[in-house]
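Supplementary Methods. Inverse-folding protocol.

Structures were first reduced to a discrete structure-token string of length 484. This string, shown here, constituted the complete conditioning input.
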């Protein structure tokens, strides 16, 4: 007899493991199917985010920033540091230790919440008597008995299988010389010349890591604009800061063939004037977007189909076309962000338990962990203009904030956009070393439909970077910023 669960989650990334934990907290009997193996061949929870995404990239961003600051910026503090060198193997070991701690943390959460972890690939094989039958197959298992397919039944299934790097035709990724985001997190030496295809989130974050560690980084971006989803003011400031640091970015670049030449890889590309160009580099990172993992899930066995781009269609509550089959995170519409996946996981678990949760998708923040960081929530000025909405804008720089000067982070600004009549905050855009943390206050304000005046009237600690958000909010109201 197959075991029956109230909820089977397929995938233990930030969408799936959070859904499993929340469902278990609400008293449901939960299993989570996960096939991930780490480089040591051990089964691991946490998915892309914890194993080869957000967490290891932030570890390397942290280390490389310490290196760059020590090498280039401690002088202004009256500190001298000579002969600063990196031990890349040690830096990578630190990153791996952080990953291990975080993935083991998810294992602990599974034990604590009595969630059954089924190792292997999960797929639908049918549905009967109000339950879905799911097969779990662990081809990587050492033990021959564990290789046999296991069948389980589920009243509800949550698909949280995430996404994988999009590779480009004719550019074979071997994760040695030509890497996707995974290989770019594990290079054994700092390349002298690094080419990057795509100036999106991953291209800018990982390009920044290797530039700080000493590589000459050239990014080829197909679009004529840079960071198309961001507010124009943010794009302009980010471009200024990132190019000043030494990232070379070519916009409107059409990438063609990549060949191994005498002096490394040759990336043939056409510039925005139509002229043929060749980029020579020692390693190449392909960061041209991600595609949903919806192959091999047996969706047709339960009457589900993906859309033209491979995503599973869902409604605002992550319901698929089949009742009691849900899908969250990178396999469904919306930004591919770990926190959005986790929010959807919580929502679905609570819906299954009979609660009435809701996500305001406009209040999901974006963060890019460059230096300075870039973060925003809500609408951009261009979106408001396209909607024909009358709005007010207030902006304040970090360059005259005492705390920012003290911690040597004067770059960037906060911009607050508010409705011209009601003063409701409609969007907040931040470029700053502290943007990833500061944006949380803006998210809270927008979730509670705060006005710019509300933020302006709330006490903010002095001296702190958060005062800049308050000043920008005041500037957006009819009042004036206090310190300008
Ligand atoms: P992305 O969509 O952010 O950027 C990809 C870029 O590559 C785009 O600018 C696109 O125009 C460009 N591009 C596509 N094809 C190209 C080609 N043939 N030649 C040149 N340029 C090309 O994708 P990404 O950076 O690969 O990241 C993937 C996903 O992971 C994103 O959805 C992102 O939100 C998510 N992610 C988020 C974070 C974060 O929140 N900090 C970090 C990493 C990844």
């Amino acid at each position: 007899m197959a075991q029956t669960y109230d909820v089977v989650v397929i995938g233990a990334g930030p969408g799936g493991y959070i859904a499993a934990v929340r469902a278990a907290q609400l008293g449901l009997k939960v299993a989570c199917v996960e096939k991930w193996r780490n480089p040591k061949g051990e089964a691991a929870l946490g998915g892309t985010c914890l194993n080869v995404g957000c967490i290891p990239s932030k570890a390397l961003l942290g280390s490389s920033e310490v290196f760059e600051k020590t090498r280039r910026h401690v002088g202004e503090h009256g500190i001298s540091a000579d002969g600063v060198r990196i031990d890349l193997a040690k830096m990578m070991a630190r990153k791996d230790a952080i990953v291990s701690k975080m993935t083991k943390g998810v294992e602990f959460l599974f034990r604590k919440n009595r969630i059954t972890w089924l190792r292997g690939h999960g797929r639908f094989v049918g549905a009967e008597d109000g339950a879905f039958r799911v097969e779990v197959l662990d081809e990587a298992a050492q033990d021959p008995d564990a290789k046999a397919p296991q069948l389980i039944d589920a009243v509800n299934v949550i698909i949280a299988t995430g996404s994988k790097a999009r590779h480009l035709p004719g550019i074979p990724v071997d994760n040695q010389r030509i890497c996707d985001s995974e290989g770019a997190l594990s290079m054994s030496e700092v390349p002298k010349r690094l080419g990057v295809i795509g100036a999106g989130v991953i291209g800018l974050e990982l390009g920044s890591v290797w530039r700080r560690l000493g590589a000459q980084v050239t990014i080829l971006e197909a679009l004529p604009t840079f960071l198309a989803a961001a507010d124009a003011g943010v794009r302009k400031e980010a471009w200024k800061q990132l190019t000043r640091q030494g990232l070379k970015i070519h916009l409107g670049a059409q990438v063609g063939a990549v060949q191994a030449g005498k002096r490394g890889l040759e990336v043939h590309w056409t510039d925005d004037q139509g002229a043929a160009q060749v980029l020579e580099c020692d390693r190449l990172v392909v960061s041209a977007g991600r595609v949903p993992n919806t192959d091999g899930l047996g969706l047709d066995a339960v009457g589900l189909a993906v859309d033209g781009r491979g995503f599973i269609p869902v409604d605002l509550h992550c319901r698929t076309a089949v009742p009691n089959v849900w899908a969250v995170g990178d396999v469904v519409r919306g930004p591919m962000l770990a926190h959005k996946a986790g929010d959807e996981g919580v929502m679905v678990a609570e819906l299954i338990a009979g609660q009435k949760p809701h996500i305001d998708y406009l209040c999901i923040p974006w963060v890019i962990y460059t230096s300075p960081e870039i973060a925003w929530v809500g609408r951009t000025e261009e979106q408001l203009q396209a909607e024909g909405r009358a709005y007010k804008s207030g902006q304040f720089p970090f360059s005259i904030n005492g705390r920012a000067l003290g911690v040597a982070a004067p770059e960037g600004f906060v911009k607050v956009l508010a409705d011209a009549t009601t003063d409701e905050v409609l969007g907040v855009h931040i470029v700053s070393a502290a943007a990833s943390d500061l944006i949380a206050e803006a998210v809270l304000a927008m979730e509670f439909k705060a006005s710019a005046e509300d933020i302006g009237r709330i006490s903010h600690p002095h001296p702190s970077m958060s005062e800049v958000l308050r000043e920008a909010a005041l500037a957006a109201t009819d009042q004036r910023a206090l310190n300008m």
